Amino acid sequence: MLKQRGQREVFCGLTGIIWLHRKIQDAFFLVVGSRTCAHLLQSAAGVMIFAEPRFGTAILEEADLAGLKDAQAELDRTVEELLARRPDIRQLFLVGSCPSEVIKLDLNRAAERLTQTYAPRVRVLEYSGSGIETTFTQGEDACLAAMVPVLPSTDARELIVVGALPDVVEDQMVALLTDLGIGPLRILPARTIEDEIAVGPNTVFALTQPFLGDTHAALIRRGARHIAAPFPFGEEGTTAWLSAIAEEFNIPRALFDRVTEAPRRRARQAISQAAVPLNDKSVFFFPDSQLEIPLARFLTRECGMTALEVGSPYIHDALHGPDLDLLPTGPQISEGQDVDLQLDRCRAAHPDLTVCGLGLANPLEADGFATKWAIELVFTPVHFYEQAGDLAALFARPLRRKSILKVAAE
């Protein structure tokens, strides 16, 4: 494995608020940051001027940064005004940013103080969305990890499925697990605070996202046990993920085959149709979202592609190990990034498709490379059987576009 510790090209963890504020329906995400943080969120979310989203920014002005004002008192005042105007808020997340961390603003102390003031009506938690030494999907990881210590304890044997999924995908997953007779089933993050989750020594959990290392560690500290499995991308990954949970709960193989037979067949058919442009093509992954290893497994084993390099910001054996075990021998596996060196390797390899961040896509397109934005794979429903064909189509689209442009140019 190649380990790199140079210059990187990533978004910051504040980006995770864009999907988390839709998922946790009674929460508000208050970013303690600069106007740049506010502009990033507004631009990324595409919020219209008359909308009232469930996130905002407490702007750190020059006086705050210079220490001329008591930032804790200013934050208390902002929270008081927010909760008075929005009585529907049941969970308030104070989200740290690069500016708040640079001035050493203690949001943990603020969250404890505000919890005492507003409990039990509002639960106040804090986490860091800073882009310092992190990648953008770690915003969700930090958020979920912050929720784990305050979950109540239980001795019941329950399954927690961890990771924010679009509601339609989550509903499909719950239906599959319910048909298999697996339960009680809890989802982290829950849609509201009323859907309370408890954790204890008899809790087992499965991850749906490969970037939840801190949440994994927090649950282990609470005594829960991880069900290791490939991530549910494509037919193979979804079947392996469900099978690992079914084995944990002693589900008969005949029942498993009966429940999964039809969706597996639909997934294989959808992939075979969508993946035609991908067959015998090569792919190069820049480290960006931490989805790279399971996606490389999907593309190489189910779509007929050849992986040249698979880069990931961080590689966690307990999380990525099952997918790494299935990845065919051949590609360079790299952890971390030295963007200039990796650009050199990419240009030398000349892959048919390059998966990278937004900051690298335009320069690579100008060099004649077909690119896929890594962030699109986080925002788009891609998990489980019914989305398997759509996942393959996302990768096929840049190759089709390049082919059409080539014909038009001729």
From TrEMBL:
<dbReference type="InterPro" id="IPR000510">
    <property type="entry name" value="Nase/OxRdtase_comp1"/>
</dbReference>
<keyword id="KW-0560">Oxidoreductase</keyword>
<keyword id="KW-0479">Metal-binding</keyword>
<keyword id="KW-0149">Chlorophyll biosynthesis</keyword>
<dbReference type="GO" id="GO:0046872">
    <property type="term" value="F:metal ion binding"/>
</dbReference>
<dbReference type="InterPro" id="IPR005970">
    <property type="entry name" value="Protochl_reductN"/>
</dbReference>
<dbReference type="GO" id="GO:0019685">
    <property type="term" value="P:photosynthesis, dark reaction"/>
</dbReference>
<comment type="similarity">
    <text>Belongs to the BchN/ChlN family.</text>
</comment>
<keyword id="KW-0004">4Fe-4S</keyword>
<keyword id="KW-0602">Photosynthesis</keyword>
<dbReference type="InterPro" id="IPR050293">
    <property type="entry name" value="LIPOR_BchN/ChlN"/>
</dbReference>
<feature type="domain" description="Nitrogenase/oxidoreductase component 1">
    <location>
        <begin position="12"/>
        <end position="393"/>
    </location>
</feature>
<dbReference type="Pfam" id="PF00148">
    <property type="entry name" value="Oxidored_nitro"/>
</dbReference>
<dbReference type="GO" id="GO:0051539">
    <property type="term" value="F:4 iron, 4 sulfur cluster binding"/>
</dbReference>
<keyword id="KW-0547">Nucleotide-binding</keyword>
<keyword id="KW-0408">Iron</keyword>
<keyword id="KW-0067">ATP-binding</keyword>
<comment type="pathway">
    <text>Porphyrin-containing compound metabolism; bacteriochlorophyll biosynthesis (light-independent).</text>
</comment>
<comment type="subunit">
    <text>Protochlorophyllide reductase is composed of three subunits; BchL, BchN and BchB. Forms a heterotetramer of two BchB and two BchN subunits.</text>
</comment>
<feature type="binding site">
    <location>
        <position position="37"/>
    </location>
    <ligand>
        <name>[4Fe-4S] cluster</name>
    </ligand>
</feature>
<keyword id="KW-0077">Bacteriochlorophyll biosynthesis</keyword>
<dbReference type="GO" id="GO:0036070">
    <property type="term" value="P:light-independent bacteriochlorophyll biosynthetic process"/>
</dbReference>
<feature type="binding site">
    <location>
        <position position="98"/>
    </location>
    <ligand>
        <name>[4Fe-4S] cluster</name>
    </ligand>
</feature>
<comment type="function">
    <text>Component of the dark-operative protochlorophyllide reductase (DPOR) that uses Mg-ATP and reduced ferredoxin to reduce ring D of protochlorophyllide (Pchlide) to form chlorophyllide a (Chlide). This reaction is light-independent. The NB-protein (BchN-BchB) is the catalytic component of the complex.</text>
</comment>
<dbReference type="GO" id="GO:0016730">
    <property type="term" value="F:oxidoreductase activity, acting on iron-sulfur proteins as donors"/>
</dbReference>
<dbReference type="GO" id="GO:0005524">
    <property type="term" value="F:ATP binding"/>
</dbReference>
<protein>
    <recommendedName>
        <fullName>Light-independent protochlorophyllide reductase subunit N</fullName>
        <ecNumber>1.3.7.7</ecNumber>
    </recommendedName>
</protein>
<feature type="binding site">
    <location>
        <position position="12"/>
    </location>
    <ligand>
        <name>[4Fe-4S] cluster</name>
    </ligand>
</feature>
<keyword id="KW-0411">Iron-sulfur</keyword>
<dbReference type="GO" id="GO:0016636">
    <property type="term" value="F:oxidoreductase activity, acting on the CH-CH group of donors, iron-sulfur protein as acceptor"/>
</dbReference>
